[in-house]
Write a structure and sequence with these properties.
The complex is a heterodimer of chains A (about 260) and B (about 290). Chain A is an alpha+beta fold. Chain A folds into two domains: about 30 residues; about 190 residues, Sulfite Oxidase, Chain A, domain 2. In chain A, a hairpin with a 5-residue loop joins strand 1 and strand 2. Chain A is globular. Chain B folds into two domains: about 210 residues, Up-down Bundle (Fumarate Reductase Cytochrome B subunit), CATH 1.20.950.20; about 55 residues, no CATH class. Helices cover about 55% and strands about 15% of the residues of chain B. The two termini of chain B are about 15 Å apart. Classes of the chains: A alpha+beta (about 260), B alpha+beta (about 290).
Chain lengths: ~260, ~290
């Protein structure tokens, strides 16, 4: 009998909590730190479960040339603004260089031709945008693992940051420059490449010329365009606003495997 | 027919007084209400995600310019210049201003958005936050569903309560049950002790078909999951097909919930709600024809 009463009082307490939740309004719930940590917990579960699924490092499905979609939509920047990029573009990126630095024993500085001379990988993959659309494209580039091995990262490196030339949001402190980051699990994956070719031709400006990241097991915004500098770091705290990417700094998930 | 049925008096004679039975186990009740929260927020956050690309396709790729099987958009009326909500289903165009395509927003008045603000969650905060909510609730749904499936299998709940009894599977019985539903007639007396056959089939379909398809088609949209399980692409016919099926099955679940709520109201909202909260369900004697 006492059990029943306590259960009943529990229900009463529960409905009271529910009512107060409704009364305090959706904004209160949304902005409460408890709700935020619950959402973060969900992100962590997704990361852990997907990493378990991917522990054998399988490749994302690769498609045939006939499967390539007629168009490939572009999101974000269509062409970086400013004279320096324009100048590089008209000289076909002859003066452009990729820097690889940060916590590495051998920093690198490579021209586009030097990158093209490295072993290439071509893959036809499905690009999935978090908005819901998807397209199939062919990408040719150098495996990121190749560059990482060449620069000899220090043992405390945990993340690889990709700094880009395009400013997606104009801010006085230039915190609107696009950037992205991967942990080593995805950075060393065979399909994680820095692409300079698309659908059999050179990488178009709208898709990130001269060099963009392809990370095939994550959502579109992780695939940074206009990559100019690769930095090996131990923590993401000091890059951008500290969340590991342009969109991450604006409330999006750092791990975007889903 | 009338001759073979026992008289109302005789039928009531078996249980002349109201009887209280323990209908729903605690696990069933708890998982039911957790499901209510999960499915509501999954639907609403799902609609908010959908609003960022309100079109559905078939195959692996799909984007603006590719023919869609379903889309919601906003257009401008050429004569009045007013925004018009247009919903397209397989070549059919419907004006849906006010609900789909163009709707009222409490802060900004009439705005172009696929699903209206009152159907989406978490409102402001954009796509990233909607995805956070959707995936958190998806994990909760999967965990909750796992508890329910284990309980259902080991407690005998599926066998005892959901599997149709032999007599319920006779064609005549099923047709009679369909006819009862058409007439909005709900079981009373002894017949209310168990679920009717259409009810059982509806629950089985939701538990063992619709919700698993929902989870699998959702996972097919994840590039990490399809890297590990590429067979999902083949199962659903591509990522965009999976997205379309995800949307379609969500609609079927909404339809199920609507019918479910109507049936609860018809069968006695107080009794039904009490049984799903405390477990106790009142069997009333069947009186009258």
């Amino acid at each position: 009998m006492s059990l029943r009463i306590s259960r009943r009082s529990l229900l009463r307490a529960g409905s009271a909590a529910g009512a107060s939740l409704l009364l305090s309004g959706c904004d209160g719930v949304l902005e409460s730190p408890a709700m935020r940590s619950a959402l973060d917990f969900g992100q962590l579960v997704s990361l852990r479960v997907q990493r378990l699924l991917l522990s054998e490092q399988p490749l994302a499905r690769e498609f045939a040339v006939k499967d390539i979609s007629p168009q490939f939509p572009l999101n974000g920047t269509a062409m970086p603004s400013g004279f320096p990029y324009f100048q590089m573009m008209i000289s076909q990126f002859a003066s452009w260089r990729l820097t690889v630095d940060g916590l590495v024993r051998r920093p690198l500085s490579l021209s586009l031709d030097e990158i093209k001379a490295l072993p290439a990988r071509t893959q036809i993959t499905l690009h999935s945008c978090d908005e819901g659309w998807s397209a199939i494209g062919q990408w040719t580039g150098v495996q990121l693992s190749h560059l990482l091995q060449a620069c000899e990262p220090m043992p405390n490196v945990r993340y690889i940051v990709f700094h880009c030339l395009d400013e997606l949001e104009r801010t006085p402190d230039r915190s609107g420059l696009y950037y992205e980051s991967l942990d080593l699990f995805d950075a060393f994956h065979p399909q994680t490449i820095l692409a300079y070719g698309m659908n059999g031709g050179p990488l178009p400006v709208a898709h990130g010329a001269p060099l963009r990241l392809r990370v095939e097991r994550q959502i579109g915004y992780k695939n940074a365009k206009y990559v100019t500098r690769i930095e090996a770091v131990e923590t993401l705290d000091h890059v951008g606003r500290g969340k590991g990417g342009f969109w991450e700094d604006r409330g999006y998930q750092w791990y975007a495997g889903l | 027919m009338a001759m073979s049925e026992p008289s109302p008096v005789a039928r009531a004679g078996a249980s002349p007084k109201r009887e209280v039975i323990y209908r729903h186990a605690l696990v069933v009740r708890a998982t039911h209400w957790i499901n209510v929260v999960c499915l509501t927020l999954l639907l609403m956050s799902g609609l908010q995600i959908f609003n960022y690309h309100p079109a559905l396709y078939w195959g692996n790729y799909g984007y603006r310019g590719v023919p869609s099987v379903f889309s919601i958009g906003a257009e401008r009326d050429p004569t009045s210049g007013e925004p018009v909500g247009v919903t397209r289903i397989a070549g059919l165009s419907l004006v849906t201003t006010g609900v789909l395509g163009v709707s009222h927003d409490p802060e900004r008045g009439m705005v172009a958005r696929a699903f209206p603000a009152w159907l989406t969650w978490p409102g402001e905060g954009g796509l990233g936050l909607a995805r956070d909510w959707h995936f958190l609730m998806a994990w909760l749904l999967v965990a909750n569903g796992g508890v329910y499936l284990l309980f259902g299998a080991f407690s005998g709940h599926f066998r005892r309560d959901l599997a149709p009894a032999a007599d319920q599977l006779r064609v005549r019985h099923i047709l009679a049950d369909v006819w009862d539903h058409v007439r909005l007639r709900v079981p009373r007396g002894e017949a209310a002790r168990r679920y009717n056959v259409l009810q059982k089939l509806a629950y089985l379909t939701v538990v063992f078909l619709l919700l698993p398809v929902m989870v699998l088609s959702g996972l097919t949209m994840s590039p990490a999951v399809t890297a590990a399980l590429p067979g999902l692409f083949d199962l659903f016919g591509g990522r965009q097909s999976a997205r379309t099926i995800h949307f379609l099955v969500a609609d079927l679940l909404v339809l199920f919930v609507l019918v479910h709520v109507v049936e609860v109201l018809l069968a006695g909202a107080v009794n039904q709600m009490r049984s799903m909260i405390t477990g106790r369900f009142v069997i009333r004697p069947r009186v009258g024809p």
